[in-house]
Amino acid sequence: MTESHLGDGRCVDLDGTRDDARLEALSPQPLLTRDYETRPSLVYERLRQQHGPVAPVDLLGVPAWLVLGYREALRVLQDDDGWPKGLENWRARSEGRVPADWPLGPSLEVNHVLIQGGPGYRPLRTAWDAALKPFQDPRNAQANRLKAAVTAYADELITLIGQGGGTGVADLSAQFSRPLPLMVASHLLGFPGSQGDDALMDMWRVLDAGPDAEPALERLLATLAELAAVKLKEPGDDFPSYLLAAHPDLNLDELARELFMLLGMTSDHVGILVSNTVVEVISGSGDVRASLSAGMVRETMNRVVMRKPPLVNFVPRFAAKDTPLGRYTIRAGDPVWVSSAAAHADPLFANHVAQGSTISTRAHLSWGAGPRQCPARELASTVAAVGVGRLFERFSHLDLALPVDQLPWRSSPFMRGLRSLPVRYELASLPAQPPVDAPAPETPDTVVPDPSVRQRSSLWRYLTGLIRAGR
Ligand code: HEM
Known about the structure:
Elements: E1 3-5, E2 11-13, E3 29-30, H1 34-38, H2 40-51, E4 54-59, E5 62-67, H3 70-78, H4 91-94, H5 105-109, H6 121-136, H7 141-162, E6 167-171, H8 172-177, H9 179-189, H10 197-208, H11 213-233, H12 239-246, H13 252-283, H14 286-293, H15 297-307, E7 317-318, E8 323-325, E9 328-330, E10 335-338, H16 340-345, H17 347-350, H18 377-394, E11 395-400, E12 409-411, E13 416-418, E14 422-427, H19 451-456, H20 458-470
Parallel strand pairs: 3-4, 5-10
Antiparallel strand pairs: 1-2, 4-5, 6-14, 7-10, 8-9, 11-14, 12-13
Helix pairs in contact: 6-12, 7-9, 7-18, 9-13, 10-11, 10-13, 11-13, 13-15, 13-18
Protoporphyrin IX containing FE binds at residues 113-114, 125, 128, 262, 265-266, 269-270, 273, 305, 310-311, 314-315, 366-368, 372-376, 379-380.
């Protein structure tokens, strides 16, 4: 290798491959700029031009490596020993160089399965897989109950929107895509009746990171700890009870943290997937609508997650030892953030995605890759597919109320989704009532609270307020 020593002590491989500069010495540029908010793809391309597949960036005052290359992303994701998670592996943090008030601290310092490394991780992940299985295995009654519940929740929300009139305008994000997964999360968590609704509203406040986010987080964690205590005493057919059965050593705090993780992932990411899929169907070619009526919702969703992954940047991993990646040597303990959004735009991946083909590739990274990929892919896809399916069945017309390029997006260091989804709708006329002697359709009456309970719930009052506002 031909090397040249730069004035600042850096060592560059003149064959065009390696720069041995330390992360901090590269004075990385802030990632989360106005440009990133509005056109993240341009930011990724600029970084790729300048640095190649791995770029130094500044994340709200903390330097990190962003992995933009598809091949490099796979290398990191598939090698959990070489690139473990776990904040204890972060050199700058151990040396006290991560500010105590770093804005990302609160979300990363909650030590649950998504963030955790070390010996505790494996048994926890195994327990997650076991606890999710009943909801994801189509042979299990729980999976059918879940589907029936999602259908019923979607119908409830659509009926509520319809109270604003048979035709009208609605914000499908606030009135459908966001509440639907929250209601599903409440079902998974086994909150009795609508009792979880206040907690769900608090989850919303936490995700929106407004001024009331901090007290909301405290209340939410307290409610989840109470729920955990109830499930410990009286296990039910729900996720917390299944997780405890698979991992009896979890204490109440640990269980509450895992429930928080489930609530966050379900409500935010699934909501984004629902909204993005709706936009794709409404604004896409006739083929997309046709494929929906041909029952190819899953295929449409696969395209959507590939083009617009809800989780754009993954939580950090750390180099176990000095390791070359892209044009740089990543030092042991340096944080590395894999960007699925940037990796999907890498020409190596993008040029191999057949644009015209009816079946899109599954080689994308939207659900992660390697041993730490998403354990809830089936569940999340089912919820989104059932929800989107009901929308297009119950509305005979759905059109965007804004040009697609003017829809407002919200970005965080981790996710990207629509802030609102204004649509003009027309409800389809209701199907005729079944004859009285027809067998009753399967309804999840044990999971859908009776209407009077709904009226009293804070989530419902909020949603009802949105209808009036929309008129
Ligand atoms: C559209 C919805 C979702 C998307 C796009 C998504 C995507 C992902 C991705 C990309 C990862 C890997 C992150 C990494 O490697 O750092 C992940 C991990 C994970 N997801 Fe999901 N997810 C979704 C929904 C859910 C839901 C609903 C749950 C829970 C019910 C869930 C539970 C998890 C867990 C526990 C992990 C951590 C796995 C581990 O580290 O071993 N996800 N998800």
